[in-house]
Amino acid sequence: MSQDLFAGSRLLSKPVTPEDTNVEVLRRFINRKHGLNLKDYSELHEYSVTNYTFWLDLWQFLGILSSVPPAKVLGEGYIKEVPQWFPGARLNYAENMLWRADDGIAITETNETGHVASYSYRELRELVRKIATALRLHGLQPGDRVAAIIANRTTSIAIALATASLGGIFTSTATDMGVKGVLDRYRQVLPKFIFSETESIYAGKTFNLIPKVSEVVQDLSSKGLGHAILLPGIKSGQEVSQEVVNSIPLSKTLSAFLASDDGRPLTFEQLPFDHPLYILYSSGTTGPPKCIVHSGGGVLIQTKKELIAHLDIGIHDTYFQFTTTAWMMWPYMLAGLACGARMIVYEGSPFYPDVKTYLKFIDEQNVNVFGTSPRFISEVQGRGVHPRRDIGNFEALRRITTTGAVLSIPQYGWMKTAFNDRAVICAGSGGTDICGAFVSSVPVLPVYAGEMQGKTLGVAVGIFDEEGKDISETGVAGELVCTRPHPSVPIRFWGDDARGTKFLNAYYDTYPGIWRHGDFMAMNPRTKGYMILGRSDGVLNPSGVRFGSGEIYSVLERPVFSARIDDTICVGQRRPQDKDERVLLFVKMRAGHKLDPAFEQSIRAAIRSALSRRHVPAYIFEVEELPYTVNGKKIEIAVKKIVSGMRVVASATVANPESLESYYKYQDIEKFAQAAKKGNDRDAKL
Ligand SMILES: CC(=O)CC(=O)SCCNC(=O)CCNC(=O)[C@H](O)C(C)(C)COP(=O)(O)OP(=O)(O)OC[C@H]1O[C@@H](n2cnc3c(N)ncnc32)[C@H](O)[C@@H]1OP(=O)(O)O
C-alpha cells in the first residue's frame, strides 16, 4: 500500500463567491458563444484542453489587441510539438501592455533604500516612446537582441517594452549574476544592445558593477555588440560620470542615448503571433544554459490569462509580485499592465532594513494580490514577525500567492491567519520553460492546505509513471507532463538546429510527443488538488531559485581546479524535516591531492564570482567515489534521493553501485555541519 501523500490536507477556505470572479465570467462567455452548458471549473478546464478553439475564445475574452485578428487557431509548425498559433494574425506585445494611456498609476517602484516613485500609464508610455525612438535611431531591427543586466525598476520595464514595440528580442539577467554566468548566456544570443546598471543594492550593501559590465561589454564588442547604455545609479539616481563612460567600450549614459529623441510618436510593429519576444534561460546538468525563446503572442495570452482568470486581477487592483529580472516571474508580473492594474515593483532584499518595513509598505499601499515564496514566509515566521499583530490589518489583501518551492501545510495555516482571514492563500507551479503555470490558483474552487488548487486553463497537465501510463487519479507521484501544445510552449532554443534537436531532447525524449517538465507531482483524487514533490532531474532549487548543476561544473572545469579535481557531483538535499533545499557539492580529488580548507575556499570564491552568491553550495565534501552509469554519466538523482533520506536500489545501469553506500551518511548532515560551517565562515569574510 503506498503512502497517502495527502493525509494531512484539510479545507482552508471555501471558494470566493463565484459570480464575482473572472473565471466564472469566462465560463459563461464560452457557454453563450458556443451554446454549451459547461457547469463548473472542471468542465471548463476539460473544454479548454480538448478544443483548441478555447484559445480563440480567450483571445476575445481577454480583449487582445491586434491589427489583423486571427482567422484560425492553428497552422503547421516546424515540428509537430510546436504548431504555428494564430497564423496570419498581427499584433504587438507592448501595445497590449500599454493599452491604457491615462493618468492612472501603472507602476509604483520602490527599493530597500526607501525610495518610492509612481508612474502613470501616460508617463510609462512616454518613457517607452523615448527609449524605442533611441533604439530605432541607433539601428534596432526586428529580431535583434537587446540584453540587460538590470534591477527591477520602471526603467527596466520600459526598456523591455520599447524593445518589444519594435520587434526586438529582450533578454535580462539580474545584477548579482557573475561575469561567467552573464557571458555563458549573452555569448549565445549575441545582443546588439546592452543596457546595464553600474551599481546595485542588496541587503544594505552597495555593489560596484563597473568592472563586471566592462568585462562583459569588452567581450561582446567583438561579437556584434554595438551599444552599451549605462543606467543612472539606482541609489544615487545620478547619471554615471564621463570617466566611467570612457572606461567602458561602446558605452554612453541613458540620457545621452535618449538625446537623439526627435519627438516621433510611439508606434508598434505589427508582428506574427509567434514572433520572438523574450529569451529566458534554464540551466541543466550538462552544457551551457539553454536559451529559451518565447513568442510575444504566447507570453501575452498565457500570462494575461493567468492574471485575469487565475489571480482574478482587474483594473482596480494593486498587484505586487516579488521577483528579480532574471526569473520568469518578471515577464509574468508584467502582465499586470495588460490587466490595467497598478504594479508594485520592488528591488533588493525584503529583509532590509527589516521585514516589518517591507510588510508595512504592502499594507500601506493597499496591495490586493501579493506574490511571494515559501522561503520568504518561513523567514517571516522564523523572525517571529506576525504581520497582522505587528504591522496592520492588511485590509486590501485578497490573495497571497507563492511559487518556486513547496508551501507546507503549516505554512498555509499560518498565512491564513497572519494577514487577514479573507485573503485566499494559493500556491502555484510552472516554469521558465513555459513562462507560465501548470497548476495555480482557481478562485472558484476551495483551498485545501497543502494543495495547489487546480490545473491552469488550456494546459493539459497529466501525471505519468515511468512507462508513460497516466496515474493522475491514483494519488501516487509521477512525472508532471503536458500532453498537448499550448501557445507558450517555447518556439525554440536559440542556436538549435532546424529540427529542434536540443529542444526535443530537453522536453520530449522520455515520452515522445509529450512534454516532460522535470517535476514530480501528485494529485489528490478526493479534492483534485495538486502537490509538487520536487525536481525529478538534477536541477537545483535552493530558496526557490532554480539553476542547473551544469553551471557549477563549468566553473570547476577551469584548469586551476581540474588539475586537482577528478570529478564532482552537485545535488540538492531536502529531507522530510527540512524547510528548504540546500546544495551539496561532492568532490573527488585526483590522486595525491586533498580538499584542504584553502582549496575549498577557492572553490566557493570562484563560484560566487563567476555565477552568484546564490549558487554557492551550502556544504562541500570530499568523497572517494562518484556514481556513474555504464555510459559514464554521473548519477545525480540517486545521490539526491539518498542524501534526502530515501533508500535507493541501484539499477543495472549503475556501473559502480557500491559507491552509493558512502552517501547515506550525509542524511545526517548536522553531523557534518560543524566542520563545514568553518568553510562558510571563512567564505563570509571574503
Ligand atoms: C512559476 C514557477 O514555478 C517558476 C519559478 O520558480 S520563478 C522563481 C520563484 N522563486 C522565488 O520566488 C525565490 C524565492 N526566494 C527569495 O526570493 C529569496 O531567497 C528570499 C528573498 C526569500 C531570501 O533572500 P536572501 O535572504 O537574500 O537569501 P538567499 O536567497 O538565500 O540569497 C543567497 C545569497 O545571495 C545573496 N544575494 C541575493 N540576491 C542578491 C543580489 N541581488 N545582489 C547581491 N547579493 C545577492 C544574498 O545576500 C545571500 O548572500 P549570503 O549567502 O552571503 O548571505
TrEMBL record:
Q: Which GO terms describe its biological process?
A: lipid metabolic process
Gene3D superfamilies on file: 3.30.300.30, N-terminal domain of ligase-like
Q: Which domain of life is it from?
A: Eukaryota
Query: AMP-dependent synthetase/ligase domain spans which residues?
Result: 115-485
Q: Which Pfam families match?
A: AMP-binding (PF00501)
- SUPFAM superfamilies (UniProt xref): Acetyl-CoA synthetase-like (SSF56801)
Q: Which UniProt keywords apply?
A: Ligase
Q: Which NCBIfam families match?
A: ac_ac_CoA_syn, PRK03584.1
**Name of the molecule in the record:** Acetoacetate-CoA ligase
- Organism of this sequence: Lactarius akahatsu
